[in-house]
Amino acid sequence: MKLWHPTSENIWQGRNDLAEADNALRVFQTIKQPANFSPEEFPHHIALLGFECDEGVKLNHGRPGAKLGPEYLRQSLANMASYDGHERLVDLGNIRADPEKLAEAQNVLSEAVYECQHQNMRTLIFGGGHETAFAHGMGIYRAFPTQRVGIINFDAHLDLRNSAQPTSGTPFRQLADYCQQHQRPFNYTCIGASLASNTQALLDEANHLDVTIIWDTQCIESMLDKVKEQIQNVINQVDIIYMTIDLDVLPIWQMPSVSAPAALGVPLERLLPLIQLICQSKKLQAVDLVELNPLYDIQGMGGKAAARLTWQLVHWWNG
């Protein structure tokens, strides 16, 4: 497959505790690592793919470096204990964007997602900038042409920008355009959005597209039950869920390593119960985590937070 390469050999490493017991296992010991991109060999598993791309971040005037995120997140995840669900992970390598060729890389990722879903695999993508979402979403819409697809985005930003050139700020506007062209409903929910980080023009666009917005100020402890009700209503309206997590939804003190760190954000301990509801809905078909930029991490804090989030959602992800 064009632009594809396997995960680096030194990534999946960790502490070996097998001398203690046969079940003293860690993720690096249970993840499957085929030599080639071969989704047909792993039905009913979770395809882990990296999207080494920050071309959209550059075009959106952000801080480049997210193309290093996939390997960094794998490394942060490798030494965590392996429990139910983690053994279904299959590392199918990375797609690496060529400079100034965003559309080409997105097309390749979309095709890879389609192939994995066609082979009854779910897809877990490590970005990359949030331009990952257009490619991932396209693959899902193509794989489920008659199903009602719901997009749930955990993000400080709505990413509905109007731009002559696609960027990391345009993916959901692009998916809305695709749905309109193909006469499909556009069901998009953004959770954790910051009013301070979205202009009135973006709110007008969200209103025009009938987007459900749950603001960061609503994701407080006393209102979490109400937020869960709203999420459950979204789940009830669709057949398939594509969940995308821009790690800048987390506060800067948990996630410094993104292009646009959040002053407020939604802390991990509040985010996890919301994600658990989606993971256990039996409708979740695709997940990505995007915008992790190791160039700006502090003592591995961002990598650890992203890895714990990944670890937890895979553990909860059932079908």
TrEMBL record:
Write down the top EC class of this protein: hydrolase
| Residues noted as binding Mn(2+) 1 in the record, renumbered to the chain | 130, 155, 157, 159, 246, 248
Protein keywords: Histidine metabolism, Hydrolase, Manganese, Metal-binding
Q: What is its EC number?
A: 3.5.3.8
Q: Which reaction does it catalyse?
A: N-formimidoyl-L-glutamate + H2O = formamide + L-glutamate
The record's Gene3D superfamilies line, in alphabetical order, gives:
Ureohydrolase domain
- Organism domain of life: Bacteria
PANTHER family per the UniProt record, alphabetical: ARGINASE/AGMATINASE (PTHR11358), FORMIMIDOYLGLUTAMASE (PTHR11358:SF35)
**According to its UniProt entry, what is the function of this protein?**
Catalyzes the conversion of N-formimidoyl-L-glutamate to L-glutamate and formamide.
Its family? Belongs to the arginase family.
Q: What name goes with this protein?
A: Formimidoylglutamase
Organism expressing this protein natively: Xenorhabdus bovienii (strain SS-2004) (Xenorhabdus nematophila subsp. bovienii)
Quick one: which gene encodes this?
A: hutG
